[in-house]
Amino acid sequence: MAVPPPVPYSFIMTRPLQVALAFAVLVAGCPTIMTSQQSAVAATSRRAAAAEAKVAQDADWGIVRVEDAALRFARTAPNALLAGITLTPMEWANVNEIKRQYTLDLNEMGNDRRTADGANEPEGRFVARIDARRLRLRGDVRDVLSAPKQVRLDRRVLGRIE
Fold it and tell me: 33-66: string of b/e by CB count within 10 Å (b at 16+)?
């Protein structure tokens, strides 16, 4: 016969009530009563389980915060990359086309992350995809620039890396 889980109680039992409960347990198979020590152990285990669930949730939120920060940083990359470099109208037209495509790619990545497809992505993979796209942007912009401007861009990029 399956025994139901114990039920905690916090009231003082009188002797007649104890006898009636003991009889009910023997005859009808009613749930058993926990002692105060068993009740404390059960409460402690529930608290521990809740704490573990909170740690897991906080870790998930930490990942989301890192991904959001990477996306925000990536959105400012094109303008920061070209700050202080004077471009010709033809270079501006090419750079603006590259920036438009880059923005579309980032928006698509951000939307994918919010859907079920991105939710199953391994931890850190989203940030790696954004970094790879930023490197591709840097290369595309560099290819559009003239040789002296490429040198200036390379110095700026290396200055940030080192």
Answer: bbeeeebeeeeeeeeeeeeeeeeeeeeeeeeeee
Domain membership of residue 125 (yes or no) is yes
**What amino acid occupies position 68?**
D
Nearest to 80 by CA among 7, 11, 156: 156
Count of domains in the chain?
A: 1
Residue 156 lies in a domain: yes
Residues 103-159 pLDDT 10s = 999 888 888 777 655 556 666 788 888 889 988 998 999 999 999 998 888 888 777
Q: What is the dihedral of CA 148, 151, 153, 159, to 10 degrees?
A: -150
**Helix, strand, coil % in the chain, rounded to nearest 5:** 80, 0, 20
Structure tokens at 110: 């951000």
Q: Residues for the chain: how many in total?
A: 162
pLDDT at residue number 162: 38
Lookup: tokens for 119? 């939710």
Structural domain of 121: 59-161
Strand (E) or helix (H) holding 104: helix 89-114
